[in-house]
Predict the structure.
Amino acid sequence: MGLLRITSPHAHGPQHTPRVMQKVLLATLPGIVVLTHFFGFGTVVNILWGSVVALLCETLALRLRGRSPGFYLRDCSALVTAFLLGIALPPYAPWWLVAVGIASAILLAKHLYGGLGYNPFNPAMAGYVILLISFPVQMTAWAPPRGAGDIPGLLQALQACFTPDAFDGSTMATPLDLLKQNDSLLLQELWAQSPQFGRWAGIGWEWANLAFLAGGLWLLQQRVFSWHAPLAMLASLSLLAGIFYDGGGSASGGSPLFHLLSGATMLGAFFIVTDPVTSAVSVRGRLIYGAMIGALVYIIRVRGNYPDAVAFAVLIMNFAAPFIDHYTQPRTYGHQRSEGRE
Amino acid sequence: MLADYSILLISAILVNNFVLVQFLGLCPFMGVSNKLETAMGMSMATTFVLTLAAACSNLTYHFLLQPLGLAYLKTIAFILVIAAVVQFTEMVVRKTSPLLHRVLGVYLPLITTNCAVLGVALLNINKDHDFLHSLFYGFGAALGFSLVLVLFAAMRERLAVADVPTPFKGAAIGMITAGLMSLAFMGFAGLV
């Protein structure tokens, strides 16, 4: 029997996968509470129903591959996917939309590649993009925020999810949509005209983003991820928004603060860009990866056809991550940086 | 003028990427993407040939086929032009730079069968591009092809060591990855 003799000091790593995933789940809670306050129980229903589907899909995939589901289910990664996708989907989405999204995220984007740790694409974002391309009408119907429309109760939210035909909910364009379609009004006029806008960005959106920022900072303090990728993303997004702000004219792309507090910016920066599996690995790689995502988010948000761009930007950069890693390998300690890397 | 060309380039590289949006040139995309080094060689060779072939086919069409009233022969004429350009490139490269020839060697003849090359030549005629526009369109198409091919090769090197279920190993998971990538590139729609 080969026993390893190791001398002191003995340190043990408290960061194992289930613990990290549980912390991520915990850190999304403030954001979920804010979203529920402003948009009603739709997001909560999305998340709960999504979690059920995610656990079923995960179990099915593990059984098919002959793995023991108990061990792998305990790492909570399927729940993280369900939470992130549930938050990203519009509230009061029909049940089949959530189910199709979660099933493609878990089965297609994760288990076809070999499960957690091998997936090159972020499962939640892959599921989101598949839904956005396949069902654009349902995916762009966002509920009106508190103060701009009626907020359905929990019972109505359940009804909206499971009997979507009988549900009669109202929808409104998101602030990002309004800004993109605007080409005649000054920003000030646009703000005054539409009830969706709040102090800095949209009603509800600004507080939800701040709540996700708070959750993300807590994760940072817990050392779940490093600061490089999120900071690079937020910095490049604000930089581009600042350059093209244009003082609030009719051709303005929106202020940096508007972009930081709109759509999925903070959720993306702290919960998706930091995914340890699908992002670049080295420090330099993460800076490049984050900055490119920020730039793509701005470009697609302002010039592209789709309402928000975080999912597309993340997916495109997931694709580029192995290439970035290949060219940003850090110098091994004690070695010279090799000339012409081979 | 400058904006015109940059829009043409961005359109060919990202928005209408030849591989992921127009689905041209899929054979080298799947075939030569197993290793990053070979993908680099292939993309360099393709960039050179595609740009040259786009220019040559444009000249052939406007100064040979059209004056003679033979526009209906353009497909077959372009195939001939592309094959000639490829052969010419190979001969020049072999004489002038044996090193480059060793790097590109195998991939040069393969480009003759790359449908993106013929696609660019025919699209240039369809879109009524003049000589410079054809040149830039060919160059942009080649850059888009190279970008996607190189990124895909780096990703496939990683997929090769992933614990992919047996039925999906190799080309199958490559196809699925390409499909997901194609979805992501749809995000560029509307950019220009």
User: Anything to note?
Assistant: Chain A has a mean pLDDT of 86. Chain A touches chain B at residues 65, 108-109, 111-115, 118, 120-121, 126, 129-130, 133, 299-300, 303-306, 309, 311-313, 315-316, 318-320, 322-323, 325-326 (CB under 8 Å). Chain A has two domains: 14-172, 174-325. Chain A has 16 helices and no strands.
